[in-house]
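Predict structure. Chain length: 284.
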Amino acid sequence: MSAVVRSRWRTWRQFARSVLSVIGLVLVIVIVLVAVFAPYVAPFPHHAGTFTNFAAASQPPGAKYWLGTDSIGRDVLSRIIFGFRTSLMLGVVVLAIAVPLGTLAGLVAGYARGAVDSVIMRVTDIFLSIPTLVLAMTILGLFRPSQALAMVAVSAVWWPWYARLVYGLVRSIRLQGFVMAAEVIGAPRWRILLSEILPNCAPSILTKTSLDMGLVILLGASLSYIGLGAPPPTPDLGTMVADGASLLPDVWWLSVMSGLAVFLVVLGFNLLGDGLRDLYDRDA
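Prediction complete.
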């Protein structure tokens, strides 16, 4: 067995010692697979589009519709499965934008000093001073709500957290001996940032990204709940919770099952993130 394989096996064994972390990983894997193969997994995939069947409207959970139907006869389970796809896409796109942008800003501000540091971090502080949900609502309120606009709005309010995290890490790493040695031999700044400093920031960034995936999905569901998410008939977990809230307590299953779906996806990523954080803290 090679050294790389032994190292990976040892890492997995350390991670697997936490039952909750493994549960989180399993939840995430199952939800991702269900979302990817939604057209093949959902009992009624056509219910995710423009479909109505008033004869089957508001039916409670049963043998045909395991989680019941909504007010226009669409299968709740099928729409939850496709809702996972919508939520995961939101989280992936938002973090794919926010993480590189915030990391780059934190790297530059943490390594440079003077005016560059001050300007970048003051802009970051301005964004951080405004509540995330309020700022996202403000951006979405200026335009017609859509899934793409929701991704842009959440990305615009999420990158400062990574800028602040990476900034603090870089300020502590830049005084380490290996960084100073690279400076002494005349290595370019971009090489020092990407080859020496960034790899040492990666564990913290990865852990935060895993934790933030659930938070971004929760924020997206909150925006959809107030009507600022993906427009109908796109399946969206937050919208489904809002639709069911007006029908409580009679049609309880619409809000309860959709809310439980949000809970499971957020729980999975939080448990996974906690496991990664404990793993990297133990290695440190």
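Summary: The mean pLDDT is 87.
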